[in-house]
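Data deposition worksheet. Section B asks for the primary sequence of the deposited chain exactly as it was used as input, without tags or linkers unless they were present during the calculation. Section C holds the resulting structure in token form. Section D is free text for depositor observations; keep each observation to a single sentence. Incomplete worksheets are returned to the depositor.
Section A, Depositor: J.P.
Section B:
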Amino acid sequence: MKRIVLSAITLGLLSSVNVQAAEDLSTMFSEGKTSGQIREFSISRSVEDTRSAKKDYTRSANAIGGHLKFETADYAGLSLGTAFYTTNGLFNDSDKTDYTKVDPTLLGPNNEAYSILGEAYVQYKTGNTVFKAGRQKLATPLAGTDDARMLPNLFEAYLMVNSDIPNTTIIAGHVTKFAQGTFGRAYGAGGLLGVTAGYSSVDASNQVGQFVNMGEYAIGQNTDGVSVLSASYKNGALKAQVWDYMAHDILNAIYADASISWTCLLSDAVKPFAAVQIISESDMGDKYAGTVEGTYFGAKFGANVGNFTGYIAYSQTSENDAGETTENAIISPWGGMPAYTQGMVTRHMFLAGTTATKAAVVYKFKDLGLKAVGYYATFAMDDNNGYTEDDASEMGFDFIYNMKAVKGLQLRLRGNFADDFYVKTTNVDPTLNGAVSWSEYRFIANYNF
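Section C:
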């Protein structure tokens, strides 16, 4: 594994070749493009746990890896692409399977290193239409990469993208398999929180680095995958999109949002913006996830003033009766997290009955190549949400520094601080009642080539 990592680092120092139209099959490969990223990630979380069956602890982890990608040049509209991904532990505690010591979100099962052929696709372009088939990244509202730890989520999909209509993009496709990224191991136990936080309802922690059936990953049932249809529109300051995800024998999810910005009448320097979003879900087919009738609504309002941006956001999810806790929650098993009110970690806004608010500020020090972000999010929990009995909150920061002295090098420092996540009372095991709080810091170095 060390040899693989060193080879990737060596290749990363080579200059990439620009992709262009090839004259024949030979130049299709010789004029291809090599690109990638080398990533070092360090994380540390100090947890305060008042549950008598648990204990306070600090867990940390370090990893190095990234990806190496090769794309051929375009020959008669046809091109090929492949990418190799790897993550490897670095200076971690020897007791790797004790997750109160070693954070589980940077590596694979049992906190071991792993590698995967994450992308392997065929692409064909004709006119304003692009067909892409095979292993690939997806960046959609309810199925996405979630590249928040070492390796992203990856998909096996068959897509058609068309832009014949002015200002409009149409996407149609079918997604058959999902390879969970390392971030998904944060929800390795599955259950309600996992499936509403963008991950599996079953324990999928050992599926990291494997392409598995979409239904098998989400709920432990083999299905015919997820069919997708979307339309997005952009014209000046107005943007809108709508997506329909048909997860066969599980649910149908519709996501839509719209945003607009304008110049303030009192000052040209002030540019307000507003946005709304909605998610509506209903069960379908064999209803492998049970009854699903969830609705989420979110809104955001803010303004840009020079290098400064500030906004406030609000969201509400439909309430449960005393029945199934997932019935009126928003189920989102395959990554992707578009909610305006999400925290860096906390994703309670999709639990049934949750009212969430968030305030955030962003300042760009353009001359320095530095962006600073700060936020505070609160989650008012409903009695029948199935997870917590009390309200929750999270605050945090994110500093991103794109180093001008070293082209392609980005340094990032992130922190999140969760307060009193109270676990719902259980009569089965009263020792699990209590509150959990934490302070978490992340340092990430990315070298892009």
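Section D:
The domain at 2-448 is CATH 2.40.160.10 (Porin).
DSSP finds four helices and 21 strands in the chain.
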